[in-house]
Amino acid sequence: MSYPTVTAPYGLKPINRFDGMPYAGATNQYPVTSGQAVFNGQVVAFVNGGTVSPVALTGNQSIYAVGICVGVQYTNSSGQTVQAQYAPATGVTNVIAYVVNDPAAEFKVAVTDSSGVITPVAGTILNTNVEGVTGTGDPATGNINSSVDGSTADDDATLLFRVTALVPETTDASGDYTEVVVKFNGTWHQQLSTLGTTL
User: Fold this and answer.
1) Closest Cα partner for 15 from 144, 86, 127, 102?
2) Distance in angstroms (rounded) separating the CA atoms of residues 33 and 15
3) Which one in 51, 148, 154, 185 has a CA-CA gap of 20 to 30 Å to 78?
């Protein structure tokens, strides 16, 4: 039987909830900080002023986030309301991000090295914490190619993501995993934190 292969990262894709309930597509709408491009599959966080901005993941710890952007709405230069996969940083106004902000939501994501190259890992990554890899957005698809860095798998509680499941359908020839399922780790989710807006 032939299994699909993962050749490049694709951002974070909501699939279900940590409590076993299916993901029903629920989102909340948040205004995006002016001058910020935002892509489907991208991690976003509240900033002072009540807006959300994309989060830089690579090489950072103790990062707060509110959720994953799964689409946008904005007003284009002709005054039309547009719903799209992503919003550019300029030429649009009134940008709203549709964000999966459920703290129990789980996301499928590719496993890479710190530079975003697919790097399969052993099943021992399960139940560890991992760092994200920021990636770049592709205006042609509207998606961001962020991922998680398998080499950072640890019990380090300052890392944003917790690996909650493995994806057997896309293991490589050695049986290592190219995709995992993650959720936000503890109080690094801004709406579980007892602090104010913190990045």
Assistant:
1) 102
2) 27
3) 51
Encode burial over 169-193: b for 16+ CB neighbours within 10 A, e otherwise.
Answer: ebbeeeebbbbbbbbbbeebbbeee
Buried b (16+ CB within 10 A) or exposed e, 98-112: bbbbbbebbbbbbbb
Q: Rounded to the nearest 5 degrees, what angle is found at the Cα of 108, between the Cα atoms of 62 and 150?
A: 55
The model's pLDDT over 35-91, given as tens digits with 9 standing for 90+, comes to: 999 999 999 999 988 899 999 998 767 888 999 999 999 999 999 999 999 999 999
* End-to-end Cα spacing for the chain: 46
Q: Is 4 helix (H, G, I), strand (E, B) or coil?
A: coil
The rounded distance, in Å, linking the Cα atoms of 165 and 89 is 35
